[in-house]
Fold:
Amino acid sequence: MSPLSHRPEIQEASPGVGAAGAGRGPAPEVRAYGLWESPLTASMFGRGVGLGDVRFARPAQPAQPALSPTSAPSPTSAPAGSAARSAEQAAADGGGPRLVWLESRAGRGVLVTGDGRSAPEDVTADHNVRARLGYGGGEFTVHGDVVFFVADGRLWRQGLMEGRATPLTHAVGQAASPAVSPDGRFVAYVHSAERRDCVAVVDAHGLHWPQRLMHGDDFYMQPAWHPDGDKLAVIAWNHPQMPWDGTELRVMTLRFDEHDAARPPAVASVEVVAGGPEESVLQPEFSPDGRFLAYVSDRSGWWHLYLYDLATGRHTQLTDGEFEVGLPAWVQGLRTYAFAPDGRSLFYIRNEAGFHSVWCVRLEDADGPAGAKDAAGGSARHFRIPSLFDEYTVLSQVAVAPAAHEAGAAAGGAAGAASGTGPESGRDPAGGAHAVDIACIASAPDIPPRVVVGRVALGPEAAPAAAGAAAGSGAPRAVVVRRSQFERFEPGLISMPKAVKWTAPDGTEVHGLYYPPANPRFVAEGLPPAVINIHGGPTSQSLPEFEPRAQWFTSRGYAFLAVNYRGSTGYGRAYREQLKGRWGLVDVEDAVSGARYLVDQGLADGRRLVVLGGSAGGYTVLRALITHPGFFRAGICLYGVADLFGMASDTHKFEERYMDSLVGPLPQAADLYRELSPVFHAHKIQDPVAVFQGAEDEVVPKAQSDQIVAALRAKGVPHEYHVYEGEGHGWRKPETVEAYYAAVDAFLRKYVVFA
Structure:
């Protein structure tokens, strides 16, 4: 099944020239590209909230009224109590669960709770919830009616609905990825202090000093408890590997103090169950019955789901094909899959060339899980979840929980109908039919990120079915619990991307997303200028999500090409590794060939091409201007790398050995570092450059931009330099976002539109 079939307007095909969307009302005004007036303002983009993660919780509260099969699914009908609790027990508890999610408001993290029926409530208004390990992530978890979170480098606990936060650890170093033991007694987490990382554990009330469980490696990620509470899985890796290069999945067996139940456990033994220097293993999660350990691995060449049988040691590949279930672990706490609470099914996000969909795989084989590559000969049972998430193209942070008792009766009835049974209690007489709620953060080119939740009915034999439907909507849809920003866009104003491919000079197929100019108020003659966007990382991917940068440009009359150059994720390990040893070369080739593709297809004016990128993308911008002078009319570099030697010595710990694989290790590759560092070749730049930099950037320090700007000034190259105080690696303040777009608009008018 095509991953795009549910969004027919987003098809992988040769794009047409979409200069301006046709809309109702007055005839569009003829105005030059780049001068269109747009209601999509920087103020609108800068004052929304960011959504970082979402989880289920089950605070104590009165039971919610029962739902009918035709009513909208409750966004909070799934408890998230102990992992050891059975689905039957959870469903029988009564009471509707809630959702907890992380919002970023002008760079400040706030935990919020809501049920989709009443107004959301802030939980942690007095704290800036933010993890600062690497690029962050893994800020919180929920256990019962208590939320555990990271703020100011410390672990805290707080009642979900009331009470004040209390610290569990001291303000020493940084913490991330809290994971609560099934019995609620302990919290395992990743800790870093003085460039030394470890997996630590503390009692859930902070009565004892935290204890180290594992140390000696450069990095750790994603601790996960076994339902029995006697084992802990964790991801570990060392320099010069990055987590998408090679990691290990380890399982610790724990030993507890017989005399003090609150004293943190120690490690009795450690087993490496998967991974190595040439295999990226991520996202460990034990099955609810404790029999299996699930994980994501790219050993097949693509990130796919696997199960490890703890009793037999057998590994089973659950998914297979040219799509990916995993994604690069730039941050802690990523979740692309989740077990159903009864352990019989597993839900996962399937990434096909950037377009996402939710699938379910059944694990009900009597002899073990049914897998796509089961050595015992089992056959996988995979089902795409219909309708609930069809309006979205990008999904993240999936969470699954059992439907509440009273809602489960209605949803269970739907499951029973599909399987020929009709339970009244939420579960059929054989114990097979039940319902689950799936929550995630969802987006599409025309939909800013949302917190959404939908209900799925599961029968013992039939395919999973979406349960419930909003009044008058027909097919069931996920309920929107939180919107991140303004969503009422003028018809025809949002540019819908098309998946495109072109051929690099060496014959390699390169991927990208093309956005045509779109604004129903205006039309223009001729071909539009085009912005060639280079994503950061470089190990990352441009996705067909709501992209404010693309929409800002396209609504003003620019075409926009998001280049997923060789080295990008989402296309398998072989494509990802084509950048190794060739950074600053093949990414530049792909940016230039992508621009030529637009020109050859009659989609852009070859005399008005702009190259734009941030961080690693900013480095590609500078390299493209150096190696192809005169090809681009102008360049926009956001906190870009200018001096590879400086990056090797001055960046943060997470990336300090990243260039070993991208360029080569020092000192052996010193000559190549000099050859590929823009600062030593700035005299070759002829085209105007706008440089933007955060004054407090710890990833690409301000000194990088200072050096390239000094070189441009010395050579008399037209340039602008904008430094934003109080900003780091990216813009957080609304006033910075507004100032940035105003500067970009003025720069392009001067050097591109009126040139």
About this structure: The domain at 493-753 is CATH 3.40.50.1820 (Rossmann fold). Confidence is low (pLDDT under 50) at residues 1-23, 59-96, 366-379, 405-431. The CA atoms of residues 308 and 314 lie 6 Å apart. The radius of gyration is 26 Å.
